[in-house]
């Protein structure tokens, strides 16, 4: 038995957890982010200090963030970059420190990414209630602000007694390491319990290996899936994030080449195939390519692999237009396989694709279908090249750049293994359509929650993951390019300070367009006249005055980053070269014209418009909305019940 405080036991337990997949083992918790307050400084904080002072090489690394939400983003980004086989913990104080993490928890759970949250909680004994920052509920004596984590966590527990800790930790880690169940796991730790000593069994701290399973498909399910695919004339794969987390990229390529089926990609699935694979038709859905969306419109069988089918992927259930379209969904989670009344194939993506390839041996889609996919993809690539080159774009004011060109310059100047990070605004959509992904882990756009502010802390987590892979697996170094809009930057830029403190190099391209290009364009298309989407001085007629004298370049410099403020695309290119050669975090500040859109394919996103309005613009937009609404489908027809399967 070992006498430790509860917090010390938590830290010792985390250090002993490992995952194993395909025979490769690694520590599961690569560190613990923290900001201390009275709710964790003398508990988890003390425990981390004690380990920090030891020379044990397996001691848990402590990372000091600047904002609790952004610490969770960094931990989640780390987990995504490591294919969910490693993650980080985050400790906070009670009260606002804890609730600041709620957004990060939702982001993790929605994206199916593991993160362990350890919010401090108010006294279990309640001897001096209400303590600082304690919520007093009139109805329920046992709630604290941490109960707000329940709906956004895949698992929530509160450890009120030391005896509960062992089972709570084991249960938490099982869920975190299970690809079908993972998300945010929250263990609330009352501040008095954190400091309480207890005699813990030694076995709790023994090295533990969590074997990450690759479930294989059930034979009967495989038969059903194969029967539907064999009946297809114009099949299409929709690859989601599950392809990458499973490391199924090669298996997908083999499947596609053997069957001739083209592959489209969701945001999380981008990079499932390299952009120049002849069967890669790129982004699908609202921000899709003309190639993927044309093939989706005609598809008679859609094979979803590791996708959640968000509304961006399905263009709010309008992108698959063919009568009688059927779905075969391969996913590690049965929750996802059953979407769109699909034939369900519950399995690991790599195993499932390999099984499908074997079972479909000798069968291919019509060669003309495969050839058409390649041709359509080529047409889109030509559009991308013109966008990269700024061809056909309207003239913009002196010193401004066009966003598509910014994306093109970063793509062309970055190494194929470098990683682009983004999350919200107009850039995720433009990246989805335009970014040429050359490495399976080269594209990291968080679009499950599309959380403004994820970009810089997310970039930090991604870079930490890349550095750990360099150290542990001998991987080559890779630069992380964070693309961030001025809106996102204003919400959450403070982790630049952490990047500087930790000596972690990021290349941040800060795209200043004085407001929301994304929501501005959306607002206009919905008849809302860009109301409240630009950062301008207030005048008699509203927020429509001059641009504000905000200097985000100076702001970034004040946080300790190197800053290069550029005017136009040529200067941006020079700045990227400078940033690549530097060992320090560099922010490249570029101004763009928010009114120049990137090329796109016509696709709809269901955002309801006011049914009655005093404004003509709204009434007109509502008519367009009603028209689109008629094209929306429910995809409820059972996919395996079709007559031609009899
Ligand atoms: C935390 C959060 N708040 C609000 C939104 C809704 N939203 C999506 S994009 C956006 C504007 C982003 O502005 P900016 O970062 O400047 O990018 P731009 O649209 O100009 O490309 C807003 C408000 C969001 N996604 N996340
Ligand atoms: Mg902006």
Structure, explained:
With 646 residues, the chain is an alpha/beta fold. The chain contains 24 helices and 23 strands. The strands form 5 sheets. Strands 5-4-6-7-9-8 form a 6-stranded parallel β-sheet, sandwiched between helices. A 6-stranded parallel β-sheet has the order 14-13-12-15-16-17, with helices on both faces. It is globular. The N and C termini lie far apart (64 Å). The mean pLDDT is 97. The site of magnesium ion (MG) has 8 residues, from helix 19.
Strand content: 15-25%
User: Distance between the terminal alpha carbons, to the nearest Å?
Assistant: 64 Å
- Ligand names: thiamine diphosphate, magnesium ion
- Proportion in helices: 25-40%
The Rg value, from CA coordinates, equals 25 Å
Largest sheet: 6 strands, parallel
Number of strands: 23
Mean pLDDT: 97
Q: How are the strands of the largest sheet arranged?
A: 5-4-6-7-9-8
> How many separate helices?
24
Q: List the uncertain runs.
A: none
Indicate the structural class.
Answer: alpha/beta
What general form does the structure show? Answer: globular
Task: Summarize this structure as a short list of keywords or feature phrases.
646 residues; alpha/beta; six-stranded parallel beta sheet; 37% helix; globular; binds thiamine diphosphate; binds magnesium ion
Topology record:
Elements: E1 2-5, H1 6-15, E2 17-21, E3 24-27, E4 29-34, H2 44-52, E5 62-64, H3 68-81, E6 87-92, H4 96-99, H5 102-110, E7 115-121, E8 155-158, H6 165-176, E9 184-190, H7 191-195, E10 197-200, E11 208-211, H8 219-230, E12 236-239, H9 241-245, H10 249-259, E13 263-265, E14 280-283, H11 290-298, E15 301-305, H12 311-314, E16 326-331, H13 334-337, E17 343-346, H14 349-359, H15 367-389, H16 403-413, E18 419-422, H17 427-434, E19 443-445, H18 455-473, E20 480-485, H19 486-491, H20 495-502, E21 507-512, H21 517-525, H22 552-558, E22 562-566, H23 569-581, E23 586-591, H24 616-629
Parallel strand pairs: 2-11, 4-5, 4-6, 6-7, 7-9, 8-9, 12-13, 12-15, 13-14, 15-16, 16-17, 18-19, 18-20, 20-21, 21-23, 22-23
Antiparallel strand pairs: 1-10, 2-3
Helix pairs in contact: 1-2, 3-5, 3-18, 8-14, 10-14, 11-15, 15-16, 16-17, 16-23
């Amino acid at each position: 038995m070992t006498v430790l405080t509860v917090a010390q036991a938590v830290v010792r337990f985390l250090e002993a957890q490992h995952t194993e997949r395909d025979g490769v083992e690694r520590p599961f918790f690569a560190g613990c982010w923290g900001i201390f307050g009275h709710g964790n400084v003398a508990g988890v904080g003390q425990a981390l200090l004690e380990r920090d002072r030891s020379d044990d090489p397996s001691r848990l690394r402590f990372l000091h963030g600047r904002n609790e939400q952004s610490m969770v983003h960094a931990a989640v980004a780390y987990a995504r970059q490591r294919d969910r086989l490693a993650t980080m913990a985050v400790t906070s104080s009670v009260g606002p420190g804890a609730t600041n993490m709620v957004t990060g928890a939702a982001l993790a759970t929605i994206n199916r990414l593991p993160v362990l949250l350890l919010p401090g909680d108010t006294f279990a004994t309640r001897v001096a209630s209400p303590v600082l920052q304690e919520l007093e509920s009139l109805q329920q004596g046992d709630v604290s602000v941490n109960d707000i984590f329940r709906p956004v966590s895949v698992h929530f527990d509160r450890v009120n007694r030391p005896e509960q800790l062992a089972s709570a930790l084991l249960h938490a880690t099982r869920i975190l390491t299970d690809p079908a169940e993972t998300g945010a796991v929250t263990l609330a730790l009352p501040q008095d319990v954190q400091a309480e000593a207890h005699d813990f069994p030694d076995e709790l701290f023994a090295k533990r290996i969590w074997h990450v399973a690759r479930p294989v498909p059930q034979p009967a399910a495989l038969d059903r899936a194969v029967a539907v695919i064999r009946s297809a004339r114009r099949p299409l794969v929709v690859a989601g994030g599950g392809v990458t987390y499973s490391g199924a990229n090669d298996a997908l390529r083999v499947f596609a080449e053997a069957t001739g089926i083209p592959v489209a990609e969701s945001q999380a699935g981008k990079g499932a195939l390299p952009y120049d694979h002849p069967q890669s038709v790129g982004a699908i859905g609202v921000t899709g390519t003309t190639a993927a969306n044309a093939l989706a419109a005609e598809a008679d069988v859609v094979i979803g692999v590791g996708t959640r089918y968000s509304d961006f992927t399905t263009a709010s259930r309008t992108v698959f237009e063919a009568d009688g379209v059927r779905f075969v969904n391969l996913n590690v989670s049965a929750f996802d396989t059953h979407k769109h009344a699909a034939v369900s194939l519950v399995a690991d993506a790599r195993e499932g694709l390999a099984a499908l390839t074997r079972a479909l041996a000798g069968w291919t889609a019509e060669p003309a279908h495969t050839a058409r996919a390649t041709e359509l993809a080529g047409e889109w690539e030509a559009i991308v090249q013109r966008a990269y080159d700024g061809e056909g774009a309207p003239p913009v004011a002196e010193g401004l750049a066009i966003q598509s060109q910014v994306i093109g310059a970063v793509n062309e100047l970055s190494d194929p293994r470098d990683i682009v990070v983004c999350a919200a605004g107009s850039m995720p959509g433009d990246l989805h359509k335009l970014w040429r992904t050359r490495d399976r882990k080269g594209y990291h756009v968080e679009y499950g929650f599309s959380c403004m502010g994820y970009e810089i802390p997310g970039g930090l987590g991604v870079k930490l993951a890349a550095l750990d892979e360099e150290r542990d697996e001998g991987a080559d170094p890779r630069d992380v390019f964070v693309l961030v809009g001025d809106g996102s930057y204003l919400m959450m830029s403070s982790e630049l300070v952490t990047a500087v403190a930790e000596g972690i190099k990021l290349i941040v391209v800060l795209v200043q367009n004085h407001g929301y290009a994304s929501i501005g364009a959306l607002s206009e298309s919905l008849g809302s006249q860009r109301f409240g989407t630009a950062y301008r001085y207030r005048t008699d007629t509203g927020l429509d005055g001059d641009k504000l004298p905000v200097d985000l370049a100076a702001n970034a410099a004040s946080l300790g980053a190197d800053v290069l403020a550029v005017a136009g695309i040529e200067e941006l290119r020079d700045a990227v070269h400078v940033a690549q050669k530097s060992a320090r975090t560099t922010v490249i500040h570029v101004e763009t014209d928010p009114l120049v859109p990137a090329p796109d394919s016509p696709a709809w996103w269901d955002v309801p418009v006011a049914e009655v309005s005093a404004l003509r613009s709204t009434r007109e937009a509502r008519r367009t909305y009603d028209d689109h609404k008629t094209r929306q489908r429910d995809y409820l027809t059972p996919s395996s019940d079709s007559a031609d399967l009899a």
